[in-house]
Amino acid sequence: MIKGVKIRFEIHNILFSIYKFNKTLNSSLIKKQINKQRKEDIGFLNNVTLNSMRLHLHSLKIIDKFIKKKLRDHEKILLISAITQIVFLNFKEYAVINCSVEIAKKLKLYPGIINAVLKKIAKNKNDLKQIKINFSDLPLWFQKETSFLSDHEKKQFLENFHKEPNIHIVFKDEERLKKFDAKLVKTSLISGFLLDEKNFQNRISFIKGDWWVQDFSSFLPLYSFKEIKKNKVLLDACAAPGGKSFQILSKKLNVILNDKNKNRIQTLKTNLKRLKLNAQILNEDFIQFGNKRKYDVIIIDAPCSAVGTIRRNPEIFFKKKGPNFDKLLSLQENMLKKASFLLNTNGFIIYMTCSFLKIETINQIERFLKLNNNFLLSNFKLKGNKGNYSKLMKNNFMITIPNTIFDYNIDGYFAAILKKIK
Questions:
Q1: Cβ atoms within 10 A of the Cβ of 418, count?
Q2: What does the alpha-carbon distance between residue 376 and residue 136 come to, in Å, rounded to a whole number?
Q3: 42-54 vs 73-83: helix crossing angle, rounded to 10
Q4: Which residues are CB-contacts of 44 (< 8 A; sequence separation ≥ 6)?
Q5: Helix, strand, or coil here: 333?
Q6: What is the distance between the alpha carbons of residues 46 and 50, in angstroms, rounded to a whole number?
Q7: Strand 191-194 vs strand 403-405: parallel, antiparallel, or unpaired?
Q8: Model confidence at 380, in pLDDT bands (50, 70, 90)?
Q9: How many CB atoms lie within 10 A of CB 189?
Q10: Which helix (H) or strand (E) holds 348?
Q11: Which residues contact 250 (CB under 8 A, 6 or more apart)?
């Protein structure tokens, strides 16, 4: 099989498994077992796969301009991938078209139609680059759960959701940031956006463990929270891959790290080793924790729809099925309930999600407070390098949609701090 066809066929199969069988991108890639001999192809594979999903709604609108009949799933996926490469990634048209035709033959589709349509699209690609997405083009489940957004917020989301994320890094301390050998747009005394993102994992300071990658939105709540002190017993209930835990450990404070997922635990251990940080690690279901041991601070980065990370995880919109909200909401509620039993009086629950949907964020906290009159919502302010980030705060909640700050992309995120008063 010709190399160009082979890797594009693999991309097609990955996209198909995500779309049809609700797989995640990571599990699909792992299943394909990319070996060392093909290491140079991983960048190409990731580029096309991720951008095909990020821009699939744009591609579908383009398809509708040229094809009126209902497409089979394989046809749809093949065309989405090819359009992404031709229109949005500016790959060589003849290579993309020829490979797509060969893949169509293997899948027993109609190669003549694929060939003809892609040639027309290639001819008109400069005009097609300008195609716009409306809010009504987004998945119905998302439209339903975001009816609370203002017109301005909806416009912001449409401008940002399909763009590639920027890399935000966090240092162990101020000194390491000052010694950093590359340009940063600083967001705090220990963090900033990386200007040169290419091969960042090869930087000596990264290998030495001076810093880690953590989205700005995820970093900010713990950086701003001042109640984490020595002699306190801390628990990170869903710790992997570890960003929030690293923030605490870098301050020479102790925190117990827990995660239910064994694969994520391995990632956490790998990250800790590179950063030369040590902590007690548990691999348990947080909801099944015994109630004897008590904590002063419990961090809950709760499982959620992850829609705030849509740029990093574009499969969220690409999958045929939306999130299982019944399961997620029940899990979030039970985690908050468990944390309330495990917390010492005057202790804090830091509840965070990489979602901005009300049902997973504000509604969850308000429901918890109604059921637990021994808790109150703590008032906290966000701080950073250029003053506080008050525009991200609303009624003592930190909440943002996928947006920009200093012209850099940040995730949608939510944080609330609950204090146990009796």
A1: 24
A2: 38
A3: 110
A4: 7
A5: helix
A6: 6
A7: unpaired
A8: confident
A9: 15
A10: strand 343-353
A11: 172, 173, 277
- Asked if 99 and 4 touch (Cβ cutoff 8 Å), the reply is yes
Which residues lie across from 212 on neighbouring strands? 170
| Closest C-alpha among 59, 48, 56 to residue 7 | 48
- Beta bridge partner(s), residue 352: 301, 415
Is the distance from CB of 84 to CB of 55 less than 8 angstroms? yes
Identify the residue whose tokens are 């995660």: 259
Q: In angstroms, what is the C-alpha Rg of the chain?
A: 23
The 10 Å Cβ neighbour count of residue 152 is: 8
- Report which of 254, 152, 275 is spatially closest to residue 207, judged by C-alpha positions: 275
Ramachandran quadrant class, 33 (left: phi over 0; alpha: psi -120 to 50; beta: rest): left
> Tokens 């077992």 — which residue?
33
d(CA 411, CA 30): 25
Instruction: Give every CB contact of residue 69 below 8 A, 6+ residues apart in sequence.
Output: none
The Cα 298–Cα 348 span in angstroms is 6
Model-wide pTM > 0.85: yes
Cis bond before residue 139 (omega within 30° of 0): no
CA distances (Å), origin 188, targets 114, 197, 211, 387: 51, 19, 14, 9
Residue 32 has pLDDT above 70, yes or no: no
* DSSP 8-state class, residue 360: G
pLDDT in tens, 334-365: 999 999 999 999 999 999 999 999 999 999 99
Joined tokens for residue 331: 């899990």
In sequence order, which residues have a C-beta less than 8 Å from that of residue 41 and are 6 or more positions away? 7, 34
* Contact of 193 with 216, CB cutoff 8 Å: yes
How far lies 280's CA from each of 59, 181, 234, 297, 388, in Å?
A: 47, 33, 11, 16, 33
CB 304, CB 240: distance < 8 Å: no
First to last CA, the chain: 68
In tens, the pLDDT along 106-122 reads: 999 999 999 999 999 99
Nearest to 169 by CA among 203, 202, 200, 193: 193
Residue 375 to residues 145, 337, 361: CA-CA distances in angstroms? 27, 12, 17
